[in-house]
Amino acid sequence: MKFQPMPQTLSRRQLCQHALAAGLALVAPLGAGATSTTTADSAEALRASIDVIIQPLMARYDIPGMAVALSIEGRAQVFNYGVRARDSQAPVNDATIFEIGSVSKMFTATLAAYAEASGKLALRDHPGRYVAALKGSAIDKASLLHLGSYTAGGLPLQFPDGVKDDADALAYLQRWKPAARPGSQRLYSNPSIGLLGAATAAAMQGRFALLMEKQIFAPLGMRHSHLHVPAEAMADYAWGHRQGRQVRVNPGPMDEATYGIKTTAADLLRFVQAQLDPAALDAPLRRAVETTQIGQFRVGHMVQGFGWEQFPYPLSRELLLGGNAEEIYFDPNPVQAVPAQPASTPRLFNKTGSTGGFGAYVLFVPAKRIGIVILANRSYPIPARVEAGYAILESLAPSPQD
């Protein structure tokens, strides 16, 4: 599949002319429950460099509201655009909660890796060890590592239409027959991560949502992140927009682990900042974050880890688009196992996420200490998200390829 660039795609010169490197260095740290403070000049320059990318994107795809959060050298800033609901015209602000879709999968992988670091499970284990109903089934030939890297043997993108809840999902997994041996191909899959979440919760002897809140959200200071938005936060919960209607995600089989998280841009940036610099985290959570960044299987130029997708950095826009192509998400791709160890050269990590009314994109480059979160209350094309993220990255840390 060939991607056509957005008409508003900007040259590196256009992107950089509004960005002042000295100003970026003045962005203050994002404290718990507060946005950063900057000098007026540096804030204006940074805002301008983001505006020239985000405003044309919103206009082209009729996106009602967006939030962009940046982490630069450990310092953070959040930029809000548009409205969180067309009917009320309430503006997007720092408290606005977005659905992040499949970016939730990165949290599920982190929780599973945390369980391993805590001695509750091993990623080489098979799911039947923790979900007794699957003992001896075809899916039990795969490991938890295979589930977290979409290499279990051909689990589909979605559960079939007749699967309505977690009980149906378990019955489906009992009957499922593989198309390939575990570890031989990658096929992006909600059921794969859903089962990983179920096995992790069983191993930790708790409810998935409560485990996520206690072991991941709380230690990272993510006080505005939810699997189920509480009544007191509903006023901040944006409405998604789809085909002229305001929508929110519906419950589905194993949805908590696969696409269930709702969060603010600032909270999601805290998760990204933990990826950029996990050293200050308690040992089990630090090891969990590090585990999700270790590559496991090569798919073309992209390496799939236990969670994050990664690319060599610096890289071209075309390579990043290719690694997020429809063929990568919807087709089975042969894989090559890579040494399971931290990369010795710089890497870019990314993940997209969607629900019916929301679109999300996250990318970060630890070597540059840059993280980017882009949230929207409309699901717009993935290539456009990748182009926007790449353009922001180039405005902050121009690559030598241009």
UniProtKB/TrEMBL annotation:
EC category: hydrolase
Residue span(s) of domain Beta-lactamase-related: 53-395
Annotated keywords: Antibiotic resistance, Hydrolase, Signal
Signal peptide range in chain numbering: 1-34
Gene3D superfamilies with a match to the protein in the record: DD-peptidase/beta-lactamase superfamily
Keyword Transmembrane helix: no
Keyword Cell division (UniProt): no
Protein family membership: Belongs to the class-C beta-lactamase family.
Name the UniProt record assigns to this protein: Beta-lactamase
Name of the gene: ampC
